[in-house]
């Protein structure tokens, strides 16, 4: 019945509930309910009939609540209970950790409710163990995910180390798009590009007379053969004939071709001893050897050249203009290319190489134009003469080790004064140097002045002095 004598619900009214039904309603509305006296003693414990995880808690009745709380929860409960007794019940739920004989613990979220006139409090609790278990599962899943990321990064690092140190030139190509997904430095050097520039490029675009569909079909057919048939192609940039040895595999639902690139020099016949000796000389000589195209772009270099310029990888140099490593840049390169193209050879040309740290190494360069209609190139042999410079300076200072030209000057003693001999010798040497620079640059006065370390005005003064101003002009 309601307060006005009616047994039905009305707006804003609560029906009178019989005591025998009230406890079951409270137990069903919460996981655990505690009736606590003003002194903090548990008067009654009600448990949800649908949840038996709490066990039997009848021994709680008649004992203080704090006996069944963990240390950190005792202070929280006492503060909340004191506030309740002062007429300020907690507005927010209170989370307490219960312990029973220090054997097990479980968290419960309680709300405070006043009932009756004896300052007792009804604590309706919600078991937080399912939430805690879910949080624990999320933490474990996060840890497993981080371990998976760490393992992935470790495998990626191993993959990168293998790719950079393996002797074979390797590219990975998507069968669906025909584009390169990854490549190592050796493959980039063989194709005349840098590794970063290869990623995303269509593989067929790097070769002559090969369409994308045709090349992909040829590679797929080669994977079906038992002996690992090669697909021959010719590169567009380096003009080399290379063989592709494909291997097909599936990754992340996509088919990928791993192609091993083998250059023509790697499969040359062992009976060609001259070629084998040339390759061995190229790799083992202490002199730097550079092959470049007629425009001055490097095609291949040996380890000795990498040592001279302080480069780490072959891919850092191949595809770059040689002018970047010459002290006078394009002027030096122009002299080498023009003389090699005009006469086929250039015996000795003195210049300096500049490494990545700015250090300059004096070298003597000889250039040879290679006669190949399909693949024209210029070969350079560079020798480090930094040690010889010190010897030449000592010998030039006079003494028993003076070179032959010095001895011819000695013959003039007695016929002219020392000042006249030195002046005449200086003029002869200066005139020879100027003539040589003008000839090497094919009468390019700007380039000649740069080679000699003179200004254009100073060069013209000296040309006029020695009667060379109208020569080849």
Q: What would you note in describing this structure?
A:
The protein is an alpha+beta fold. It has 14 helices and 15 strands. It has helices at 19-29, 71-85, 129-165, 185-191, 195-198, 212-223, 273-284, 303-309, 330-343, 386-396, 404-410, 418-440, 445-452, 456-465, and strands spanning 32-36, 42-47, 94-100, 104-114, 121-127, 169-174, 180-183, 231-234, 241-251, 254-263, 288-292, 298-301, 345-354, 360-370, 377-384. Strands 2-1-5-4-3 form a five-stranded antiparallel sheet. Strand 4 and strand 5 (121-127) form a beta hairpin. Helix 12 packs across helix 13 (445-452) and helix 13 (445-452) packs across helix 14. It starts with 18 loop residues before the first helix and ends in an 8-residue tail after the last helix.
Short description:
The protein has helices at 19-29, 71-85, 129-165, 185-191, 195-198, 212-223, 273-284, 303-309, 330-343, 386-396, 404-410, 418-440, 445-452, 456-465, and strands at 32-36, 42-47, 94-100, 104-114, 121-127, 169-174, 180-183, 231-234, 241-251, 254-263, 288-292, 298-301, 345-354, 360-370, 377-384. The chain has 473 residues and is an alpha+beta fold.
Characteristics:
14 helices; alpha+beta; 473 residues; 38% helix
Write the layout of secondary structure elements.
Layout: H1 19-29, E1 32-36, E2 42-47, H2 71-85, E3 94-100, E4 104-114, E5 121-127, H3 129-165, E6 169-174, E7 180-183, H4 185-191, H5 195-198, H6 212-223, E8 231-234, E9 241-251, E10 254-263, H7 273-284, E11 288-292, E12 298-301, H8 303-309, H9 330-343, E13 345-354, E14 360-370, E15 377-384, H10 386-396, H11 404-410, H12 418-440, H13 445-452, H14 456-465
Antiparallel strand pairs: 1-2, 1-5, 3-4, 4-5, 6-7, 6-10, 8-9, 9-10, 11-12, 11-15, 13-14, 14-15
